[in-house]
Amino acid sequence: MRVLSISSSRADVGILEPVWRALESRAEVRLHLLLTGMHMAEDAAMVVPAGAALHRAGADLGGGGPDQAAAAMAAIAAAASGVYTAVAPDVVVVVGDRLDMIPAAVATLPFNLPLVHLHGGERTEGAIDERIRHALTKLAHLHCVATAEAGALVAAMGEEQWRIQVTGAPGLDTLIAAPTMAVADFAAALDLAPDDGLCLVTVHPETNGPDPAAPLNAVLAALDRAPMPTLFTAPNTDPGGAAMRAQIEAFVARRPWAAYRATLGGRLYANALRHATVMVGNSSSGIIEAALFGLAVINVGARQRGRTRGPNVHDCAAESTQVSRLLGSVAGRRYDPAQVSLYGDGRSGPRIAQVITELPDRDKLMAKLLVGASAVQRTGQLELV
Fold first, then answer.
1. How far apart are CA 60 and CA 178, in angstroms?
2. Which CATH number, 3.40.50.2000, 3.30.390.50, 3.40.50.1240, 3.90.850.10, labels domain 2-168+347-378?
3. How sure is the predictor about 141, in pLDDT bands with cuts at 50, 70 and 90?
4. Which has the closest alpha carbon to 308: 317, 295, 319, 299?
5. What pLDDT is recorded for position 382?
6. How are beta strands 142-145 and 164-166 bridged, if at all?
7. Are the CB atoms for 156 and 190 separated by under 8 Å?
8. For residue 133, which of 97, 167, 254, 379 is within the disulfide window of CB 3.0 to 4.6 Å?
9. At the fourth CATH level, which superfamily is domain 181-340?
């Protein structure tokens, strides 16, 4: 069975690695990986399973303007179609909600390939990811969702119940499997001062808002008011991401208490969540993964609005005084992971691999029906308003 899994960013890798490992362990599977998007600007070879066939193709969105992103999306669709022709996969696996994922998914349509989608049914109303995620849901034939609530939303979109499996978030598998590092060893690995008071910051462009950089500006101003040891990771390459990255690098260069690392990898990132006293920004990781360690999170702005979250997540507007107030009140607070971690048990990879490899009959799988009693179905007409 030829399984083709697509990754378009470093964030995907932590999510997909447990799925890749579980698929690779199955003798009946020949695993192919298409690395595109951000991977075209990064070296991701070290995370590729040894037995997988690797394909690198497409373009990086670049983090510039919308014209650059649109051109990259076209290049990804063209490159993906070439891979589909060469591999002839039995099933394609896509994840999430990114601009550089949807062109690869759309390119499956002329080939009429079965599509399995991970992390559908979630909500991020402050980012265009919201529309992309739901579009991928309608393109996909099977849905591996992280929570029962997400599954209910996928069903509400007209997807048949048998197509939806609540598997949990596989990114938790990666974090649980990461070896624990002592604070001193973690600090030494990143050339940081061995301080227990670390603030972990990840801010992405708020692509559905009037000012995509507003959350970052609020965070930087709040940190300047009350400096603390701070580790920034890179924004993604959505439009506006490159300018935000340059802004962070300039900020860090003038402040000895701040450090920047573009990416940490699974082991270091798990230990960053373990040893930090607070996480600040607007990343989905603050909603999904941070809760596994009971970490307090300050979620800034509207990017993650609507996504299911635990009580360890404290929301505020993209306004520096609100960020400052929360930094003063929640930094250092720890929560019981059993009470706040809502996205699974860290054993999602094998569940997802089972869904992928035990596909229903192709005729049943590919004949998608739109289910649900809509107003039109009930009345046979729409009323003017």
1. 28
2. 3.40.50.2000
3. very high
4. 299
5. 52
6. parallel
7. no
8. 97
9. Glycogen Phosphorylase B; (3.40.50.2000)
The pLDDT tens digits for 82-113 are 999 999 999 999 999 999 999 999 999 999 99
Q: What are the extents of the domains in the chain?
A: 2-168+347-378, 181-340
Q: Are 289 and 175 in contact (CB under 8 A)?
A: yes
Cα–Cα distance for residue pair 272/187, rounded to 1 Å = 9
**Diameter of the chain measured on Cα atoms:** 67
Asked if 285 and 205 touch (Cβ cutoff 8 Å), the reply is no
Q: Which residue has the tokens 């929560």?
A: 335
The model carries a pTM of 0.89
Res. 80: pLDDT tops 70: yes
Any bridge partners for residue 93, and if so which? 5, 116
CB atoms within 10 A of CB 325: 15
49-59 pLDDT per residue, tens:
889 999 999 99
How far, in Å, CA of 92 to CA of 2, rounded? 9
Give yes or no on whether 2-168+347-378 and 181-340 have one common fold: yes
Report the distance separating Cα 214 and Cα 182, nearest Å.
35
Tokens of 125: 């109303």
**Radius of gyration over alpha carbons of the chain, in Å?**
21
Residue 77: pLDDT band with limits 50, 70, 90: very high
* Rounded Cα–Cα distance for residues 354 and 125 (Å): 31
Residue 363 CA to residue 352 CA, distance in Å, equals 21
Angle separating helix axes 320-330 and 214-225, nearest 10 degrees = 50
H/E segment holding residue 143 = strand 142-145
State residue 41's pLDDT score: 87
Over residues 191-236, the pLDDT tens digits come to 888 776 899 999 999 999 999 999 999 999 999 999 999 999 999 9
Six token digits for residue 170: 């596989």
Q: Tell which phi-psi region holds residue 158, choosing left (phi > 0), alpha (psi between -120 and 50) or beta.
A: left
H helices then E strands: how many in the chain?
Answer: 16, 13
